[in-house]
Fold these 3 entries.
Entry 1:
Amino acid sequence: MAPDCRGMTFIELVFVIVILSVAVVGLIGVIDLNVQQSANPLIQAQDFSIAESLLDEVEQQPFTYCDPTDPRVTTATSAASCSTPSEDALPLGPKHGESRGSAALPLDNVSEYNGLTLDPVTDLNGSVIAQGYKASITVTQVGGKESLDAIDPLPLAALLKILVSVTGPDGQTVSLTGYRARYAPTTPP
């Protein structure tokens, strides 16, 4: 055996172990950070899903001149024809003690969803469907075209802008906007 051939000394072995340990700790830190961040896309997808569901719920409501419980709802020719305050009356929001999910007095018109806050998010029966998520709905009147160039100018209150915002447990907020035109002003639910 040649005198140059020898193994690693104890000191060299300790240095190799220290260098490999630092590299492994750094790699584990990167993996841990990736694992923590991997939940965010799921939370954002849930935020978007909740916002989309609530926006659909609001947009599917009728948008009549009168409240659907008004006796003149099917014959009204304008908001002034209603026997109770019209759905155009400001401020927009629930009327006559109506609330979301109520069997006796449900929200039954698009404008009545204005100001609705759900914390936590519930379904129409009041069951919690998303613990740790919050949602808010704002409905505002839009006069004229407001970026809807394909629609002829509509009179004030004939077009509503619906903004749904959902905040997940990570504190991030997703907002969706929709519009509802009054295309069937005398068709109750």
Entry 2:
Amino acid sequence: MKLLEQKVAIITGSASGIGKATALLFAENGAKVVVSDINENHGNKVVEEIKAMRGESAFFKADSASPEENEALVRFALQQFGKLDIAVNNAGIGGPLSPTGEYPLEGWKKTIDINLSGVFYGLRYQIPAMLESGGSIINVASILGQAGTKMSPAYVAAKHGVVGLTKAAALEYADKNIRINSVGPGYIKTPLIMNTLDETARNALVELHPIGRLGESEEIAELILWLASSKSSFVTGAYYPADGGYLAQ
């Protein structure tokens, strides 16, 4: 039997990167996957890939910064597949790069809205849908949910907030058969990094990881799969880094 046989999962930000890798891995392991993203074209391509492997999937366009669209996403999953067992709150942006004393106000608002409020909105509507039968929620934080870095105050604040929010919610629902955990990827070879940074900048990021390379989206997806499955049945309220040794320094 596959790890997620007959489970229904929502994955936000799943048109590319970690979200896409997770969607494909979940489907391989038997889950019915609701792919959600603001990029409708790429999102539908992920659905096509899942269906090509004889999996079940559907796309729903949603902006994680909108509470109404988070609610509609959960409602869509229930209408499409009849239940919700797993949610991965993965959607996020890097935000502007600037010192705190000069940080653009709109950049702050947008980064917090997507990276932190978006996770809260997800939990706000995912949890009620899981109360009857239980479930597992994985929030994608970052190594910068545990450490700081210069020039990204909004991102660091949001990701620290995701880790704290995860712990608070996990305690509230631990006795209701809903497990809530967070993961902390190091720097991963996603389009965000590969398409926006030059080779010099990418090499500088590699140097930050004792393992000597950037991570792959599929490596993070494997950790998320474990947390989504019954293999991690005694795990809740935890933060799991997957960072090539970044935080051990």
Entry 3:
Amino acid sequence: MTLNELLDTVPTYAKDLKLNLSTLLQQQELNEQQIWGTVAVSAIASRNPRLLQTLLAEAASHLSPQALEAAKSAAAIMGMNNVYYRFQHLAKNPKYATLPARLRMNVLRNHGVDPIDFELWCTAASAINGCGLCVDSHEQVLRSKGMTEESILAAVRLASVIHGLAAVFDTEAVVPSQPVPSLT
């Protein structure tokens, strides 16, 4: 299914999400690799199979194989790290923050794309996964490397719309919208 075909299935109650996605895919704050890497990582983090399949296929037409693999890597590592560091943040026991993670995170250094792009994708995944500690850490790195708040927010905006669409498609898979009866 193409992206346009998928968007044609968005129910009326979620029309704003459909319109937002179309607009955000054209935003000027991010370059093409940043946009489509954010799309890929957000689709993975949002976990809706239908949306994931379509968006990854579309992202593959805009990204090099290496960039697509890096976006997948960002989603994978953040899937692990967001749980681990969210626990540290939420637990009242301060000792957890002093203990070594003992988790492999080599991909944070060996992903093969612009480090700013990878950090941006980690930020988007962390926003979807709800890890404030990771969001803050990656956002600080992005700003220290010269990325503007407007560009960072552009990626988070895109992630939020994709996550919203995933929720809509999950809902529609369980309880499809009923057509509105005609008044004629």
